[in-house]
Structure formats: C-alpha cells, structure tokens
C-alpha cells in the first residue's frame, strides 16, 4: 500500500506531508526513511511512531514516487 497523509513532526507539531510505502515512511523533504509495523494515518505525529528500521537516502524525498524509488533501490 502507498499513500500520502497530512501529519506533524517535532515538539512544535510542525505540519507536513508524510509519504508511506510498504511499511516505510518519510516526511516530505527529508532524507530519513523509517520503517514501522504501525499504520500511518491522517494526522499522525511521526515523533510517536515506533520504528524498527531506517536508512538515509542520497537526496531529499519530495514525492511518494521518490519514496518508492528509494525503498526499491
């Protein structure tokens, strides 16, 4: 499953788009990609998502297609 939801990050709950693909997710504009068993839903605060894996991509991820490309690389 892949989707984009509106969420937040950080202690100030900064609004952001969150891309989700096959258990992997990242915030729009980030190079950090995290994996979770949790379902990423509308309004998620990514600071509270429990991750079990992660990687750093070579450039900012600015779309769902770019997240998919990074995960499948």
Strand content: over 45%
Shape: globular
Q: Give the total of domains.
A: 1
- Stretches with pLDDT under 50, minimum 5 residues: none
Keywords:
mainly beta; 73 residues; globular; five-stranded antiparallel sheet
Tell me what you see in this structure.
By secondary structure, this protein is mainly beta. The chain has one domain (2-72). It is built from one helix and five strands. The radius of gyration is 11 Å and the shape is globular. The model has no long low-confidence stretch (mean pLDDT 97).
Secondary structure layout plus pairing:
Elements: E1 2-9, E2 14-21, E3 24-27, E4 30-36, E5 51-61, H1 64-72
Quick summary:
By secondary structure, the protein is mainly beta. It is built from one helix and five strands.
């Amino acid at each position: 499953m892949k989707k984009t939801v509106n969420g937040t990050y950080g202690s100030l709950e900064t609004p952001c788009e969150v891309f989700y693909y096959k258990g992997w997710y990242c915030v729009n504009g980030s190079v950090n990609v995290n994996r979770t068993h949790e379902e990423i839903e509308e309004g998620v605060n990514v600071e509270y998502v429990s991750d079990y894996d992660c990687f750093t991509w070579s450039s900012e991820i600015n779309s769902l297609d770019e997240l998919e490309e990074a995960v499948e690389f």
